[in-house]
């Protein structure tokens, strides 16, 4: 593993220094191994590891390329790892979401377009006053994803997208067991939307915090 780690660090160094840029094709295996002072086996292991986390793209019959290094692509690995969370860490995921998502919502109040606001409004209108819990949670995910995408920060968007998975089951369970969960969620969504239409960053931040904290508080009460 130490030899493979060294190979990974050397390839990483080439990318960070700009010797290899997004979209560049890596030199032939024999040439790159010689240039970096590595064995071909350790180089292959490093390439395999870096391709798993979307740093490199191995194309059969064509060669190995540096990916676009787009944040959404790179953070796919986060989503994969997050899927292995334990039930007792859900509160920690909610706490992180409570820190990040209100900030993203406040940022969205500046950048979100009227057309995007109309889409969000249509989504809420289509739900009606008494949606099923499954319909509500599916809309909740799309509602917040749409807002965060409008924040103008692709890294923040990718992070929150990756963190949303572990909290989905908690949201469904809350909807099934807490009497006013559905009506509260709909009310909070409308309040967030109103703040965004008013371009009121602090109100948007506050309502997003209230919205996430309500799930967190309910979950704490059930543990």
Tell me, what's the shape? elongated
Q: In percent terms, what proportion of residues is strand?
A: under 5%
Write out the strand line-up for the largest beta sheet, numbering strands in chain order.
1-2
Low-confidence stretches: none
Radius of gyration equals 22 Å
Task: Spell out the key features of this protein.
223 residues, mainly alpha, two-stranded antiparallel sheet, 4% strand
Tell me about this structure.
This protein has about 220 residues and is mainly alpha-helical. About 75% of the residues lie in helices and about 5% in strands. The protein contains twelve helices and two strands, in the order αααββααααααααα. A two-stranded antiparallel sheet has the order 1-2. It starts with a helix and ends with a helix.
Give the helices and strands, then pairings:
Elements: H1 2-17, H2 29-36, H3 40-52, E1 56-59, E2 63-66, H4 71-74, H5 76-82, H6 90-111, H7 114-127, H8 133-149, H9 154-163, H10 165-177, H11 181-197, H12 201-222
Antiparallel strand pairs: 1-2
Helix pairs in contact: 1-3, 5-9, 6-8, 6-9, 6-11, 6-12, 7-8, 7-11, 8-10, 8-11, 11-12
